[in-house]
Amino acid sequence: MPRPATIVRGIVLGLGAAVFLFPFYYMIVGSLQREPDQTLAGAFPHPANLTLENYVTINDRLNLLQGVLNSGIFAVAVIVATVFFGALAGYALSILQWRGRGAVFALALLVQVVPFQLLMVPLYVMIARNYGLADNYLGIILPFAINSTAVVIFRQYFLQLPRAIFEAARVDGASEWQILTRVALPLIRPALVTVVLITFIGPWNEFLWPFLVTKRAEMQPLAVSLANYISNVANSTANPFGALLAGAVVLAAPVAVLFVAFQRYFVASELSTGVKE
Amino acid sequence: MASTTPAAMSADAATRPPAASAHQEHRLRQRVLGWLFSAPYLVYVAVIFAYPLGFAVYMSLYDYFFTAPGVNVVRPFVGLRNYTHALADPAVRQAFGNVLEFLVINVPLTVVLSLLLATLLNQVVHARAFLRVSFYLPYLTASVAVVGVWLFLFSGTGLVNQLLGPLAPHPSWLVNERLAMPSIALFVTWKQLGFYILLYLAALQNVGRELYEAASTDGASWWSSFWYVTVPGVRSATVLVLLLSTIVGANLFTEPYLLTGGGGPNGASTSPVLVMYQQGIQQGKPGYAAAIGVLLVLMTLVIAWLQNRFGQERD
């Protein structure tokens, strides 16, 4: 017989989980409704009212595939730059001995607390106006190119490797580049998964910056084109909420699936080094 | 965050190579390679963070306007005029007031709910992974996607109002001048809470078990062991949660832009970043927007400093 305290705890946690998960369930249900049904009964889908029509509608309105492709290009470019340059920097900050190392590491931590609202206007002036990189993949990617959290994670994992491995490789005549790519990186594969996951989520979800620098629809990542659809939605479609929620499902699904599949790689210690939005 | 700092400062414990010259060559090579390997990252930080930071302050002191790329024009120095204009601008004042209202609702709610849920989650044996995933999912999902569902839920004829029946507010949540900002604060609390729950969950692992055992032998209730053991035990995490939730609140943009159709009704839910977007980019006054940005950062720093003082005084 469980104690009353245990029962109360179960109820509070269960209620919490319901509050967090219900909107996701409702997002899917809403995206499948032929007629928007906002009554309580509408939360339990009626088979006759189910359709994939809304996905067709949203695809006609904002070219889903192009949006997904743009978001994908944005995210993959940031992942490639972060893994390559971040691993190099992380290696220098942990394995190599050089003066200035402490200062560079402090910089990598400091960068993570610089508020984007202060950078937004000057970056826009520089990238969109001075360099003419508006409506350009490079312009979208640049401010996110190297994730500083990833630099810190790489450094942390390299530091945990036994020193003797590096000494042995050097004695065998391996260059530092060879040690990094053939010895150190293969040994920290779990960190690599973590870095790729958290680096993917940032650009995929990012709205403000790509919104500022893309005006042409065919250049916009999905988050931006969906937001534009939301901000002038109401009068253009027969079932605006259905189409909107269908777009939301497409935007949310990749991250949700990756998170559920790889959730053991989202470790608390990494999170507290500052995943921010 | 701070736990990662000084671990690497220890001196080189490597075994010394036989010849002194080989050793010196090795050290020289490490010194050069250290800078070389960090160079791309350093260039990135200089171009994307350091230069724009300086540029923002510079721009805020000028009547800065857009020109075609490459055109060289004189932009007049105006001193602190952008700042005095911003402080006198009713739209800017309203936006700052809105953010303060947001913080007053969002920050305490975030601290209380995340600590409570983290404490309960920490005591639970079954379904831990499931609960973790469900708490964390909103945090990881794009704002734009979840804003869509909240619009659906909180619209005039939405599910929330259907459930409330005669208690539903008129005008509805997001188009009601009094309720627009609290609705946004509630949305952001819901969306970010999972991150803070995990932060507290990590901090709770460092609270000594023996303290709880001592409390329970003394016959302390659940509530008093929560209040006298847990709350003081996670104080440094609480300071971090206060700081991060304040920064997130100061950065508010997507929610007023989408949830309340650009800060409506009648500017009741505008935010400073929204005003910066309207003034700096839509109206072409980046110097003015940069000044608002500097003021916003100063406000955030003052609040963070107050929170820190308050957090330490209770020791």
Features:
heterodimer; A: 277 residues; mainly alpha; MetI-like fold; 14 helices; 70% helix; B: 315 residues; disordered N terminus
Task: Write a brief structural summary.
The complex is a heterodimer of chains A (277) and B (315). Chain A has 277 residues and is mostly helical.
Folded structure, characterized:
The complex is a heterodimer of chains A (277) and B (315). Chain A is 70% helix and 0% strand. Chain A has 277 residues and is mostly helical. Chain A has a domain at 70-231 and 267-271: MetI-like fold (Orthogonal Bundle), CATH 1.10.3720. In chain A, helix 2 crosses helix 3 and helix 10 (189-205) runs antiparallel to helix 13 (240-261). Chain A is globular. Residues 268-277 of chain A have low confidence and may be disordered. Chain B starts with 19 loop residues before the first helix and ends with a helix. Chain B has helices at residues 20-59, 81-88, 90-123, 128-140, 143-154, 159-164, 180-204, 209-217, 222-233, 235-250, 254-258, 272-282, 286-313. Classes of the chains: A mainly alpha (277), B mainly alpha (315). At the A-B interface, helix 1, helix 3, helix 4, helix 5 and helix 7 of A face helix 1, helix 3, helix 4, helix 5 and helix 6 of B.
Q: Which architecture of the domain at 70-231 and 267-271 in chain A does the CATH hierarchy give at level 2? A: Orthogonal Bundle
CATH T-level fold name of the domain at 70-231 and 267-271 in chain A: MetI-like fold
| Helical percentage of chain B | 55-70%
Residue-averaged pLDDT of chain B? 87
